[in-house]
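A note on notation is needed here, since sequence and fold are reported together in a single record. The reader may check this reading against the record printed directly beneath this paragraph.
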Amino acid sequence: MNFDPSWGQAGQSVQQFWQEHWSKSLQTLQQMQAGAPMGLSAMPGLGAAPNPWASITEAMQSAIPQAAAGSAQTVQFDTPKLQGLQQEYLQSVQSLADAKQVQALLAKDKRFAKPEWSANPVAAMAAANYLLGSRMLTGMADAVQGDEKTRNRVRFAVEQWVAAMAPSNFLALNADALNKVVETKGESLAQGIANLLADMRQGHVSMTDESLFTVGQNVATTEGAVVFENELFQLIEYKPLTAKVFEKPFLMVPPCINKFYILDLQPDNSVIRYAVSQGHRTFVVSWRNPDESLGHKTWDDYIEDGVLKAVSTVQDICEAQQINVLGFCVGGTMVSTAMAVLAARHAREHGELPAAKPARSRAAAAKTSSRTAAAVKTQAQPFPVASMTLLTTLIDFRDTGILDIFIDENMVRLREMQMGKGGLMKGQDMASTFSFLRPNDLVWNYVVGNYLKGETPPPFDLLYWNSDSTNLPGPFYAWYLRNLYLENNLIKPGVLTVCGEKIDMGQLKMPVYIYGSREDHIVPVGAAYASSQVLGGKLRFVMGASGHIAGVINPPAKNKRSHWLREDGEFPESFNDWLADATEYPGSWWTDWSAWLGSHSGKQLAAPRSYGRARAYAAIEDAPGRYVLSKA
Protein backbone atom coordinates (compact mmCIF):
# COMPACT_ATOMS: atom_id res chain seq x y z
CA MET A 1 0.00 0.00 0.00
CA ASN A 2 1.42 3.38 -1.02
CA PHE A 3 1.54 5.98 1.74
CA ASP A 4 0.04 9.39 0.99
CA PRO A 5 1.62 12.01 3.31
CA SER A 6 -1.62 14.02 3.35
CA TRP A 7 -3.40 11.03 4.91
CA GLY A 8 -0.84 10.87 7.68
CA GLN A 9 -1.09 14.60 8.39
CA ALA A 10 -4.88 14.46 8.44
CA GLY A 11 -4.79 11.42 10.72
CA GLN A 12 -2.45 13.14 13.15
CA SER A 13 -4.70 16.19 13.17
CA VAL A 14 -7.83 14.17 13.91
CA GLN A 15 -6.03 12.09 16.54
CA GLN A 16 -4.68 15.21 18.25
CA PHE A 17 -8.12 16.83 18.23
CA TRP A 18 -9.80 13.90 19.96
CA GLN A 19 -6.95 13.33 22.39
CA GLU A 20 -7.04 16.94 23.54
CA HIS A 21 -10.82 17.16 23.85
CA TRP A 22 -11.41 13.79 25.50
CA SER A 23 -8.48 14.27 27.89
CA LYS A 24 -9.89 17.60 28.87
CA SER A 25 -13.33 16.10 29.39
CA LEU A 26 -11.96 13.27 31.55
CA GLN A 27 -9.91 15.68 33.63
CA THR A 28 -12.97 17.83 34.12
CA LEU A 29 -15.05 14.85 35.19
CA GLN A 30 -12.44 13.83 37.74
CA GLN A 31 -11.31 17.20 39.08
CA MET A 32 -14.59 19.10 39.23
CA GLN A 33 -16.80 16.48 40.81
CA ALA A 34 -16.58 18.18 44.17
CA GLY A 35 -17.63 21.48 42.65
CA ALA A 36 -21.01 20.27 41.42
CA PRO A 37 -24.11 22.12 42.64
CA MET A 38 -25.34 21.09 46.04
CA GLY A 39 -27.24 17.83 45.96
CA LEU A 40 -25.90 16.77 42.54
CA SER A 41 -22.46 15.50 43.47
CA ALA A 42 -23.69 11.92 43.91
CA MET A 43 -26.39 10.83 41.53
CA PRO A 44 -28.07 7.49 42.20
CA GLY A 45 -27.88 4.90 39.48
CA LEU A 46 -24.47 5.92 38.18
CA GLY A 47 -22.47 3.48 40.25
CA ALA A 48 -18.78 4.25 40.26
CA ALA A 49 -18.90 6.29 37.06
CA PRO A 50 -17.52 9.85 37.22
CA ASN A 51 -20.10 12.50 37.87
CA PRO A 52 -21.25 13.85 34.48
CA TRP A 53 -22.83 16.94 36.03
CA ALA A 54 -19.46 18.30 37.03
CA SER A 55 -18.31 18.79 33.45
CA ILE A 56 -21.20 21.08 32.76
CA THR A 57 -19.60 23.64 35.06
CA GLU A 58 -16.65 23.95 32.70
CA ALA A 59 -18.95 24.36 29.74
CA MET A 60 -20.87 27.05 31.57
CA GLN A 61 -17.70 28.83 32.67
CA SER A 62 -16.39 28.86 29.10
CA ALA A 63 -19.69 30.29 27.94
CA ILE A 64 -19.32 33.33 30.20
CA PRO A 65 -16.51 35.63 28.98
CA GLN A 66 -15.83 37.15 32.40
CA ALA A 67 -15.42 33.75 33.99
CA ALA A 68 -13.25 32.52 31.16
CA ALA A 69 -11.04 35.57 31.61
CA GLY A 70 -10.31 34.47 35.16
CA SER A 71 -12.58 36.70 37.21
CA ALA A 72 -14.16 35.54 40.42
CA GLN A 73 -17.58 35.23 38.77
CA THR A 74 -19.12 31.79 39.09
CA VAL A 75 -22.13 30.20 37.49
CA GLN A 76 -25.31 30.92 39.43
CA PHE A 77 -28.41 28.75 39.26
CA ASP A 78 -32.07 29.30 39.98
CA THR A 79 -32.29 27.26 43.21
CA PRO A 80 -35.99 26.26 43.00
CA LYS A 81 -35.52 25.09 39.41
CA LEU A 82 -32.45 23.12 40.39
CA GLN A 83 -34.24 21.43 43.27
CA GLY A 84 -37.14 20.56 40.98
CA LEU A 85 -34.74 19.06 38.46
CA GLN A 86 -33.10 16.93 41.14
CA GLN A 87 -36.45 15.57 42.34
CA GLU A 88 -37.50 14.81 38.77
CA TYR A 89 -34.19 13.03 38.15
CA LEU A 90 -34.46 10.91 41.27
CA GLN A 91 -37.96 9.82 40.31
CA SER A 92 -36.83 9.00 36.76
CA VAL A 93 -33.90 6.91 37.98
CA GLN A 94 -36.29 4.68 39.91
CA SER A 95 -38.15 3.91 36.69
CA LEU A 96 -35.01 2.30 35.23
CA ALA A 97 -35.76 -0.85 37.22
CA ASP A 98 -38.73 -1.46 34.93
CA ALA A 99 -37.62 -2.91 31.57
CA LYS A 100 -40.81 -1.75 29.83
CA GLN A 101 -40.25 1.83 30.95
CA VAL A 102 -36.66 1.67 29.75
CA GLN A 103 -37.82 0.36 26.39
CA ALA A 104 -40.43 3.13 26.13
CA LEU A 105 -37.77 5.72 27.00
CA LEU A 106 -35.38 4.46 24.29
CA ALA A 107 -38.14 4.26 21.68
CA LYS A 108 -38.64 8.04 21.89
CA ASP A 109 -35.12 8.74 20.59
CA LYS A 110 -34.28 7.64 17.06
CA ARG A 111 -30.66 6.97 18.06
CA PHE A 112 -31.79 4.18 20.42
CA ALA A 113 -35.12 3.11 18.93
CA LYS A 114 -33.97 -0.08 17.18
CA PRO A 115 -34.68 -3.38 18.99
CA GLU A 116 -30.96 -4.13 19.33
CA TRP A 117 -30.65 -1.45 22.00
CA SER A 118 -33.43 -2.81 24.22
CA ALA A 119 -32.19 -6.38 23.73
CA ASN A 120 -28.72 -5.54 25.06
CA PRO A 121 -28.92 -4.85 28.84
CA VAL A 122 -25.62 -2.97 29.00
CA ALA A 123 -26.40 -0.78 26.01
CA ALA A 124 -29.97 -0.21 27.16
CA MET A 125 -28.89 0.93 30.62
CA ALA A 126 -26.17 3.18 29.18
CA ALA A 127 -28.66 4.80 26.78
CA ALA A 128 -31.33 5.20 29.45
CA ASN A 129 -28.90 6.80 31.91
CA TYR A 130 -27.64 9.03 29.13
CA LEU A 131 -31.15 10.22 28.23
CA LEU A 132 -31.97 11.02 31.84
CA GLY A 133 -28.64 12.74 32.28
CA SER A 134 -28.94 14.79 29.12
CA ARG A 135 -32.41 15.89 30.18
CA MET A 136 -30.94 16.99 33.50
CA LEU A 137 -28.09 18.85 31.84
CA THR A 138 -30.46 20.70 29.56
CA GLY A 139 -32.61 21.63 32.53
CA MET A 140 -29.55 22.90 34.39
CA ALA A 141 -28.66 25.09 31.42
CA ASP A 142 -32.13 26.60 31.54
CA ALA A 143 -31.70 27.18 35.29
CA VAL A 144 -28.58 29.31 34.83
CA GLN A 145 -29.05 32.89 35.94
CA GLY A 146 -27.78 35.56 33.58
CA ASP A 147 -28.61 37.62 30.52
CA GLU A 148 -30.13 35.96 27.47
CA LYS A 149 -26.85 35.82 25.55
CA THR A 150 -25.11 34.03 28.42
CA ARG A 151 -27.98 31.59 28.75
CA ASN A 152 -27.90 30.86 25.03
CA ARG A 153 -24.17 30.24 25.16
CA VAL A 154 -24.64 27.83 28.03
CA ARG A 155 -27.41 25.99 26.17
CA PHE A 156 -25.18 25.68 23.12
CA ALA A 157 -22.25 24.36 25.18
CA VAL A 158 -24.53 21.83 26.85
CA GLU A 159 -25.99 20.75 23.53
CA GLN A 160 -22.53 20.11 22.08
CA TRP A 161 -21.38 18.12 25.12
CA VAL A 162 -24.59 16.09 25.32
CA ALA A 163 -24.55 15.32 21.59
CA ALA A 164 -20.91 14.19 21.69
CA MET A 165 -21.34 11.95 24.75
CA ALA A 166 -24.23 9.84 23.40
CA PRO A 167 -23.53 6.09 23.82
CA SER A 168 -24.45 5.65 20.16
CA ASN A 169 -21.22 7.48 19.22
CA PHE A 170 -19.04 4.74 20.77
CA LEU A 171 -18.62 1.37 19.12
CA ALA A 172 -18.35 -0.48 22.46
CA LEU A 173 -21.81 0.77 23.50
CA ASN A 174 -23.62 1.00 20.16
CA ALA A 175 -25.68 -2.20 20.13
CA ASP A 176 -26.87 -1.59 16.57
CA ALA A 177 -23.33 -1.17 15.22
CA LEU A 178 -22.03 -4.18 17.18
CA ASN A 179 -24.84 -6.33 15.83
CA LYS A 180 -23.91 -5.27 12.31
CA VAL A 181 -20.27 -6.19 12.90
CA VAL A 182 -21.37 -9.70 13.83
CA GLU A 183 -23.82 -10.02 10.93
CA THR A 184 -21.27 -8.87 8.33
CA LYS A 185 -18.39 -10.82 9.93
CA GLY A 186 -16.43 -7.63 10.42
CA GLU A 187 -16.96 -6.18 6.95
CA SER A 188 -18.94 -3.22 8.29
CA LEU A 189 -16.07 -2.29 10.60
CA ALA A 190 -13.53 -2.58 7.77
CA GLN A 191 -15.72 -0.41 5.56
CA GLY A 192 -16.13 2.09 8.39
CA ILE A 193 -12.36 2.43 8.68
CA ALA A 194 -12.13 2.93 4.92
CA ASN A 195 -14.84 5.60 5.12
CA LEU A 196 -12.97 7.33 7.93
CA LEU A 197 -9.74 7.40 5.95
CA ALA A 198 -11.53 8.75 2.89
CA ASP A 199 -13.17 11.52 4.94
CA MET A 200 -9.86 12.39 6.58
CA ARG A 201 -8.37 12.77 3.13
CA GLN A 202 -11.12 15.06 1.85
CA GLY A 203 -11.19 17.04 5.08
CA HIS A 204 -14.84 16.69 6.13
CA VAL A 205 -17.42 14.13 7.18
CA SER A 206 -19.38 12.84 4.18
CA MET A 207 -23.08 13.64 4.40
CA THR A 208 -23.87 12.06 1.05
CA ASP A 209 -22.18 9.88 -1.54
CA GLU A 210 -20.21 12.66 -3.19
CA SER A 211 -18.92 10.36 -5.92
CA LEU A 212 -22.40 10.40 -7.48
CA PHE A 213 -22.45 14.16 -8.17
CA THR A 214 -20.57 16.26 -10.70
CA VAL A 215 -21.22 19.97 -11.06
CA GLY A 216 -22.40 20.67 -14.59
CA GLN A 217 -23.43 17.06 -15.23
CA ASN A 218 -26.13 16.20 -12.70
CA VAL A 219 -26.24 19.38 -10.59
CA ALA A 220 -26.15 22.93 -11.97
CA THR A 221 -27.36 21.73 -15.37
CA THR A 222 -29.63 24.56 -16.57
CA GLU A 223 -28.36 25.54 -20.03
CA GLY A 224 -26.52 28.83 -20.24
CA ALA A 225 -23.19 30.56 -20.82
CA VAL A 226 -20.76 32.82 -19.02
CA VAL A 227 -20.98 36.25 -20.68
CA PHE A 228 -18.75 38.30 -18.36
CA GLU A 229 -16.11 37.70 -15.71
CA ASN A 230 -13.74 39.60 -13.50
CA GLU A 231 -11.57 38.49 -10.58
CA LEU A 232 -14.57 38.24 -8.22
CA PHE A 233 -17.37 36.63 -10.23
CA GLN A 234 -18.62 35.17 -13.46
CA LEU A 235 -21.96 36.34 -14.87
CA ILE A 236 -24.05 33.51 -16.33
CA GLU A 237 -26.89 34.11 -18.77
CA TYR A 238 -29.42 31.29 -19.18
CA LYS A 239 -31.02 30.12 -22.40
CA PRO A 240 -34.68 31.17 -22.67
CA LEU A 241 -37.30 28.44 -22.41
CA THR A 242 -40.10 30.65 -23.77
CA ALA A 243 -40.64 32.35 -27.13
CA LYS A 244 -40.96 35.71 -25.41
CA VAL A 245 -39.25 37.18 -22.37
CA PHE A 246 -40.02 40.08 -20.10
CA GLU A 247 -38.62 43.46 -21.02
CA LYS A 248 -36.74 43.86 -17.72
CA PRO A 249 -34.01 41.24 -17.20
CA PHE A 250 -33.63 39.41 -13.92
CA LEU A 251 -30.38 39.12 -11.90
CA MET A 252 -29.87 36.64 -9.03
CA VAL A 253 -27.13 37.22 -6.45
CA PRO A 254 -26.47 34.16 -4.25
CA PRO A 255 -24.37 34.30 -1.06
CA CYS A 256 -20.63 34.44 -1.62
CA ILE A 257 -20.11 32.06 1.31
CA ASN A 258 -21.65 29.25 -0.77
CA LYS A 259 -21.67 28.05 -4.39
CA PHE A 260 -24.44 29.51 -6.56
CA TYR A 261 -25.92 26.17 -7.60
CA ILE A 262 -28.08 25.90 -4.50
CA LEU A 263 -30.38 27.78 -6.89
CA ASP A 264 -29.88 25.12 -9.58
CA LEU A 265 -29.60 21.68 -7.98
CA GLN A 266 -31.82 19.52 -10.21
CA PRO A 267 -34.18 20.51 -13.05
CA ASP A 268 -37.25 19.80 -10.90
CA ASN A 269 -36.11 21.95 -7.93
CA SER A 270 -34.11 24.67 -9.68
CA VAL A 271 -35.06 28.26 -8.83
CA ILE A 272 -33.06 29.38 -11.86
CA ARG A 273 -34.86 27.07 -14.28
CA TYR A 274 -38.21 28.09 -12.78
CA ALA A 275 -37.47 31.78 -13.36
CA VAL A 276 -36.40 31.08 -16.94
CA SER A 277 -39.54 29.03 -17.54
CA GLN A 278 -41.66 31.96 -16.34
CA GLY A 279 -40.29 34.12 -19.16
CA HIS A 280 -37.50 36.02 -17.39
CA ARG A 281 -34.22 36.74 -19.15
CA THR A 282 -32.19 35.41 -16.25
CA PHE A 283 -28.63 36.13 -15.14
CA VAL A 284 -26.83 34.71 -12.09
CA VAL A 285 -23.66 35.74 -10.28
CA SER A 286 -21.25 32.85 -9.75
CA TRP A 287 -18.78 34.03 -7.12
CA ARG A 288 -15.17 33.00 -7.37
CA ASN A 289 -13.88 30.82 -4.54
CA PRO A 290 -11.10 33.16 -3.31
CA ASP A 291 -7.54 31.99 -2.83
CA GLU A 292 -4.66 33.86 -1.19
CA SER A 293 -4.42 36.22 -4.17
CA LEU A 294 -7.84 37.65 -3.20
CA GLY A 295 -7.19 37.64 0.54
CA HIS A 296 -7.07 41.45 0.61
CA LYS A 297 -10.56 42.01 -0.83
CA THR A 298 -13.03 44.04 1.22
CA TRP A 299 -16.79 44.43 1.57
CA ASP A 300 -16.53 47.53 -0.65
CA ASP A 301 -14.79 45.48 -3.35
CA TYR A 302 -17.60 42.93 -3.38
CA ILE A 303 -20.24 45.67 -3.57
CA GLU A 304 -18.53 47.82 -6.22
CA ASP A 305 -16.81 45.20 -8.39
CA GLY A 306 -19.31 42.46 -7.59
CA VAL A 307 -22.98 43.38 -7.18
CA LEU A 308 -22.94 46.83 -8.80
CA LYS A 309 -20.80 45.61 -11.68
CA ALA A 310 -23.23 42.74 -12.26
CA VAL A 311 -26.19 45.15 -12.28
CA SER A 312 -24.60 47.52 -14.80
CA THR A 313 -23.39 44.63 -16.97
CA VAL A 314 -26.87 43.11 -17.20
CA GLN A 315 -28.24 46.55 -18.10
CA ASP A 316 -25.60 46.94 -20.78
CA ILE A 317 -26.08 43.47 -22.26
CA CYS A 318 -29.86 43.86 -22.46
CA GLU A 319 -29.79 47.60 -23.20
CA ALA A 320 -32.30 47.95 -20.38
CA GLN A 321 -32.91 51.01 -18.25
CA GLN A 322 -34.14 48.84 -15.39
CA ILE A 323 -33.64 45.30 -14.16
CA ASN A 324 -35.05 43.18 -11.33
CA VAL A 325 -32.70 41.73 -8.70
CA LEU A 326 -32.81 38.91 -6.16
CA GLY A 327 -30.50 38.33 -3.21
CA PHE A 328 -30.33 35.15 -1.14
CA CYS A 329 -29.03 35.14 2.46
CA VAL A 330 -25.74 37.09 2.58
CA GLY A 331 -26.33 37.80 -1.10
CA GLY A 332 -29.48 39.66 -0.05
CA THR A 333 -27.54 41.74 2.47
CA MET A 334 -25.01 42.56 -0.25
CA VAL A 335 -27.74 43.45 -2.75
CA SER A 336 -29.45 45.70 -0.19
CA THR A 337 -26.16 47.45 0.55
CA ALA A 338 -25.44 47.86 -3.16
CA MET A 339 -28.90 49.33 -3.72
CA ALA A 340 -28.30 51.86 -0.94
CA VAL A 341 -25.02 52.88 -2.61
CA LEU A 342 -26.83 53.13 -5.94
CA ALA A 343 -29.62 55.19 -4.36
CA ALA A 344 -27.12 57.69 -2.96
CA ARG A 345 -25.42 58.05 -6.33
CA HIS A 346 -28.69 58.25 -8.23
CA ALA A 347 -29.99 60.98 -5.93
CA ARG A 348 -26.84 63.03 -6.47
CA GLU A 349 -26.58 62.49 -10.22
CA HIS A 350 -30.25 62.55 -11.22
CA GLY A 351 -32.06 65.12 -9.15
CA GLU A 352 -33.06 65.87 -5.59
CA LEU A 353 -31.31 69.20 -6.04
CA PRO A 354 -31.64 71.91 -3.36
CA ALA A 355 -34.47 74.38 -3.91
CA ALA A 356 -33.51 77.39 -6.03
CA LYS A 357 -33.14 80.75 -4.25
CA PRO A 358 -35.40 83.65 -5.38
CA ALA A 359 -34.02 85.29 -8.56
CA ARG A 360 -32.80 88.91 -8.35
CA SER A 361 -33.30 89.73 -12.05
CA ARG A 362 -35.19 88.58 -15.13
CA ALA A 363 -32.00 87.10 -16.58
CA ALA A 364 -31.31 85.23 -13.36
CA ALA A 365 -34.90 84.01 -13.35
CA ALA A 366 -34.46 82.64 -16.86
CA LYS A 367 -31.30 80.81 -15.82
CA THR A 368 -33.06 79.41 -12.78
CA SER A 369 -35.96 78.23 -14.95
CA SER A 370 -33.50 76.56 -17.32
CA ARG A 371 -31.74 74.76 -14.45
CA THR A 372 -35.08 73.63 -13.03
CA ALA A 373 -36.15 72.22 -16.39
CA ALA A 374 -32.84 70.39 -16.65
CA ALA A 375 -33.34 69.00 -13.15
CA VAL A 376 -36.83 67.75 -14.01
CA LYS A 377 -35.47 66.12 -17.15
CA THR A 378 -32.69 64.50 -15.10
CA GLN A 379 -35.15 63.27 -12.49
CA ALA A 380 -37.02 61.40 -15.21
CA GLN A 381 -34.12 58.94 -15.40
CA PRO A 382 -35.49 55.81 -13.69
CA PHE A 383 -33.69 54.06 -10.87
CA PRO A 384 -31.71 51.13 -12.39
CA VAL A 385 -33.50 48.50 -10.29
CA ALA A 386 -37.25 48.10 -10.71
CA SER A 387 -37.76 45.59 -7.88
CA MET A 388 -35.81 43.61 -5.32
CA THR A 389 -36.41 40.14 -3.87
CA LEU A 390 -34.80 39.22 -0.55
CA LEU A 391 -34.72 35.55 0.48
CA THR A 392 -33.84 34.72 4.12
CA THR A 393 -31.91 37.98 4.37
CA LEU A 394 -30.70 40.03 7.32
CA ILE A 395 -30.72 43.81 7.10
CA ASP A 396 -31.55 44.41 10.76
CA PHE A 397 -29.09 42.25 12.74
CA ARG A 398 -30.67 42.57 16.19
CA ASP A 399 -31.88 38.97 16.10
CA THR A 400 -29.30 36.68 14.54
CA GLY A 401 -30.59 33.49 16.10
CA ILE A 402 -28.12 30.94 17.39
CA LEU A 403 -25.20 32.63 15.62
CA ASP A 404 -25.40 35.41 18.20
CA ILE A 405 -23.61 33.20 20.73
CA PHE A 406 -20.40 33.47 18.69
CA ILE A 407 -20.43 37.25 18.31
CA ASP A 408 -18.99 39.63 20.88
CA GLU A 409 -16.34 42.35 20.97
CA ASN A 410 -13.51 39.96 21.88
CA MET A 411 -14.34 37.50 19.12
CA VAL A 412 -14.65 40.22 16.47
CA ARG A 413 -11.44 41.89 17.61
CA LEU A 414 -9.64 38.55 17.38
CA ARG A 415 -10.83 38.05 13.80
CA GLU A 416 -9.75 41.59 12.94
CA MET A 417 -6.28 40.88 14.32
CA GLN A 418 -6.08 37.55 12.49
CA MET A 419 -7.37 38.56 9.07
CA GLY A 420 -8.64 42.13 9.07
CA LYS A 421 -5.73 43.27 6.88
CA GLY A 422 -5.53 40.16 4.73
CA GLY A 423 -5.87 36.40 4.66
CA LEU A 424 -8.72 33.93 4.26
CA MET A 425 -11.57 32.63 6.36
CA LYS A 426 -11.39 28.99 5.35
CA GLY A 427 -14.54 27.46 3.96
CA GLN A 428 -14.12 24.24 5.92
CA ASP A 429 -14.01 26.18 9.19
CA MET A 430 -17.27 27.93 8.37
CA ALA A 431 -18.89 24.71 7.20
CA SER A 432 -17.95 22.96 10.44
CA THR A 433 -19.41 25.80 12.50
CA PHE A 434 -22.73 25.62 10.68
CA SER A 435 -22.82 21.83 10.98
CA PHE A 436 -22.38 22.00 14.75
CA LEU A 437 -25.41 24.25 14.99
CA ARG A 438 -27.31 20.95 14.57
CA PRO A 439 -24.78 18.43 15.92
CA ASN A 440 -26.95 15.31 16.04
CA ASP A 441 -28.35 15.73 12.53
CA LEU A 442 -25.31 17.11 10.71
CA VAL A 443 -22.35 15.60 12.58
CA TRP A 444 -22.86 12.58 14.84
CA ASN A 445 -25.51 10.99 12.66
CA TYR A 446 -22.90 10.64 9.92
CA VAL A 447 -20.08 9.68 12.27
CA VAL A 448 -22.16 6.73 13.47
CA GLY A 449 -23.42 5.72 10.03
CA ASN A 450 -20.19 6.19 8.11
CA TYR A 451 -17.65 4.88 10.60
CA LEU A 452 -19.34 2.64 13.18
CA LYS A 453 -21.75 0.97 10.76
CA GLY A 454 -19.69 1.24 7.57
CA GLU A 455 -22.60 2.69 5.60
CA THR A 456 -22.46 4.97 2.60
CA PRO A 457 -24.89 7.87 3.03
CA PRO A 458 -27.60 8.06 0.34
CA PRO A 459 -27.28 10.54 -2.53
CA PHE A 460 -28.74 13.95 -1.72
CA ASP A 461 -28.02 16.95 -3.94
CA LEU A 462 -28.56 19.55 -1.21
CA LEU A 463 -26.07 17.89 1.15
CA TYR A 464 -23.55 17.57 -1.67
CA TRP A 465 -23.83 21.33 -2.19
CA ASN A 466 -23.59 21.87 1.56
CA SER A 467 -20.20 20.12 1.59
CA ASP A 468 -18.88 22.18 -1.34
CA SER A 469 -17.67 25.06 0.82
CA THR A 470 -16.00 28.34 -0.18
CA ASN A 471 -13.45 30.66 1.41
CA LEU A 472 -13.96 34.31 2.28
CA PRO A 473 -11.43 37.15 2.14
CA GLY A 474 -10.44 38.08 5.70
CA PRO A 475 -11.06 41.86 5.43
CA PHE A 476 -14.53 41.23 3.97
CA TYR A 477 -15.34 38.81 6.81
CA ALA A 478 -14.00 41.04 9.59
CA TRP A 479 -15.90 44.10 8.32
CA TYR A 480 -19.07 42.05 8.02
CA LEU A 481 -18.78 40.77 11.59
CA ARG A 482 -18.18 44.15 13.18
CA ASN A 483 -20.42 46.47 11.22
CA LEU A 484 -23.37 44.14 10.74
CA TYR A 485 -23.43 41.29 13.27
CA LEU A 486 -21.89 43.19 16.19
CA GLU A 487 -22.86 46.84 15.72
CA ASN A 488 -25.92 46.50 13.44
CA ASN A 489 -24.91 49.61 11.51
CA LEU A 490 -26.79 48.81 8.32
CA ILE A 491 -30.10 50.09 9.73
CA LYS A 492 -28.54 53.34 11.02
CA PRO A 493 -28.93 56.10 8.40
CA GLY A 494 -25.65 57.71 7.42
CA VAL A 495 -23.46 55.67 9.80
CA LEU A 496 -21.88 53.41 7.19
CA THR A 497 -19.86 54.66 4.24
CA VAL A 498 -19.71 52.00 1.53
CA CYS A 499 -17.97 52.58 -1.81
CA GLY A 500 -17.57 56.24 -0.87
CA GLU A 501 -21.30 56.78 -0.18
CA LYS A 502 -23.09 57.31 3.11
CA ILE A 503 -25.97 54.87 2.91
CA ASP A 504 -29.52 54.91 4.20
CA MET A 505 -31.67 51.79 3.72
CA GLY A 506 -34.80 53.91 4.15
CA GLN A 507 -34.03 55.55 0.80
CA LEU A 508 -34.68 52.30 -1.07
CA LYS A 509 -38.06 53.08 -2.63
CA MET A 510 -38.39 50.20 -5.10
CA PRO A 511 -40.95 47.41 -4.49
CA VAL A 512 -39.46 44.58 -2.38
CA TYR A 513 -40.57 40.97 -1.93
CA ILE A 514 -39.31 39.59 1.40
CA TYR A 515 -39.26 35.88 2.19
CA GLY A 516 -38.56 34.23 5.57
CA SER A 517 -38.56 30.55 6.61
CA ARG A 518 -40.51 29.60 9.74
CA GLU A 519 -37.89 27.19 11.18
CA ASP A 520 -34.80 29.06 9.99
CA HIS A 521 -32.02 28.87 12.61
CA ILE A 522 -29.61 31.10 10.64
CA VAL A 523 -31.94 33.96 9.67
CA PRO A 524 -34.88 33.72 12.10
CA VAL A 525 -38.17 34.52 10.39
CA GLY A 526 -38.71 37.51 12.67
CA ALA A 527 -35.33 38.88 11.62
CA ALA A 528 -36.21 38.47 7.94
CA TYR A 529 -39.50 40.27 8.63
CA ALA A 530 -37.63 43.11 10.39
CA SER A 531 -36.49 44.36 6.96
CA SER A 532 -40.06 45.58 6.48
CA GLN A 533 -39.44 48.17 9.19
CA VAL A 534 -36.32 49.50 7.46
CA LEU A 535 -36.99 49.66 3.71
CA GLY A 536 -38.89 52.57 2.21
CA GLY A 537 -40.75 51.07 -0.75
CA LYS A 538 -43.92 49.04 -1.24
CA LEU A 539 -43.42 45.64 0.38
CA ARG A 540 -44.75 42.11 0.25
CA PHE A 541 -43.76 39.58 2.91
CA VAL A 542 -44.30 35.83 2.81
CA MET A 543 -43.38 33.17 5.34
CA GLY A 544 -42.64 29.65 4.16
CA ALA A 545 -42.49 26.43 6.15
CA SER A 546 -39.26 24.56 7.00
CA GLY A 547 -35.73 25.92 7.35
CA HIS A 548 -33.10 28.13 5.79
CA ILE A 549 -32.60 26.08 2.63
CA ALA A 550 -35.51 23.62 2.43
CA GLY A 551 -38.00 26.46 2.84
CA VAL A 552 -36.54 28.33 -0.13
CA ILE A 553 -36.03 25.33 -2.41
CA ASN A 554 -39.68 24.31 -2.56
CA PRO A 555 -40.90 23.93 -6.18
CA PRO A 556 -44.66 24.14 -6.79
CA ALA A 557 -44.85 20.80 -8.64
CA LYS A 558 -44.08 18.89 -5.45
CA ASN A 559 -46.98 20.56 -3.63
CA LYS A 560 -45.13 20.44 -0.32
CA ARG A 561 -45.24 22.69 2.72
CA SER A 562 -47.32 25.81 3.21
CA HIS A 563 -46.77 29.53 3.02
CA TRP A 564 -48.40 32.45 4.81
CA LEU A 565 -49.50 35.79 3.38
CA ARG A 566 -51.30 38.87 4.60
CA GLU A 567 -53.18 40.83 1.99
CA ASP A 568 -54.12 43.99 3.92
CA GLY A 569 -50.75 45.62 3.25
CA GLU A 570 -50.10 46.20 6.95
CA PHE A 571 -46.64 45.67 8.44
CA PRO A 572 -46.87 46.04 12.22
CA GLU A 573 -43.64 46.37 14.16
CA SER A 574 -43.92 42.90 15.64
CA PHE A 575 -43.69 39.83 13.42
CA ASN A 576 -46.11 37.99 15.71
CA ASP A 577 -48.67 40.74 15.12
CA TRP A 578 -48.22 40.29 11.36
CA LEU A 579 -48.61 36.53 11.69
CA ALA A 580 -51.77 36.83 13.79
CA ASP A 581 -53.66 38.13 10.75
CA ALA A 582 -51.86 36.09 8.09
CA THR A 583 -53.53 33.32 6.09
CA GLU A 584 -51.98 29.91 5.47
CA TYR A 585 -51.92 28.63 1.89
CA PRO A 586 -50.91 25.08 0.97
CA GLY A 587 -47.93 24.50 -1.30
CA SER A 588 -45.00 26.57 -2.49
CA TRP A 589 -44.60 30.33 -2.22
CA TRP A 590 -42.93 30.38 -5.65
CA THR A 591 -46.19 30.94 -7.53
CA ASP A 592 -47.04 34.03 -5.48
CA TRP A 593 -43.53 35.40 -5.99
CA SER A 594 -43.65 34.66 -9.74
CA ALA A 595 -46.87 36.66 -10.14
CA TRP A 596 -45.40 39.52 -8.12
CA LEU A 597 -42.14 39.55 -10.12
CA GLY A 598 -44.01 39.41 -13.41
CA SER A 599 -45.98 42.51 -12.43
CA HIS A 600 -42.69 44.45 -12.17
CA SER A 601 -41.06 43.09 -15.33
CA GLY A 602 -42.62 45.16 -18.09
CA LYS A 603 -43.88 44.07 -21.48
CA GLN A 604 -42.87 40.94 -23.36
CA LEU A 605 -40.31 40.86 -26.15
CA ALA A 606 -39.00 38.20 -28.51
CA ALA A 607 -36.52 36.01 -26.69
CA PRO A 608 -32.87 36.59 -27.65
CA ARG A 609 -31.33 34.04 -30.00
CA SER A 610 -27.80 34.25 -28.62
CA TYR A 611 -26.05 34.87 -25.33
CA GLY A 612 -24.64 38.25 -24.33
CA ARG A 613 -24.44 41.07 -26.85
CA ALA A 614 -22.13 41.23 -29.84
CA ARG A 615 -18.39 41.08 -29.26
CA ALA A 616 -18.40 43.04 -26.01
CA TYR A 617 -20.22 40.25 -24.19
CA ALA A 618 -19.64 37.15 -26.25
CA ALA A 619 -20.04 33.79 -24.55
CA ILE A 620 -16.85 32.84 -22.71
CA GLU A 621 -17.74 29.26 -21.75
CA ASP A 622 -20.78 27.11 -21.06
CA ALA A 623 -22.59 27.29 -17.73
CA PRO A 624 -21.92 26.62 -14.92
CA GLY A 625 -18.47 28.04 -15.69
CA ARG A 626 -15.12 27.24 -14.15
CA TYR A 627 -15.33 29.50 -11.04
CA VAL A 628 -17.87 27.20 -9.40
CA LEU A 629 -15.59 24.19 -9.86
CA SER A 630 -12.84 25.56 -7.60
CA LYS A 631 -12.66 23.72 -4.26
CA ALA A 632 -11.92 25.35 -0.93
Remarks:
- The longest strand covers residues 385-391.
- The longest helix spans residues 5-31.
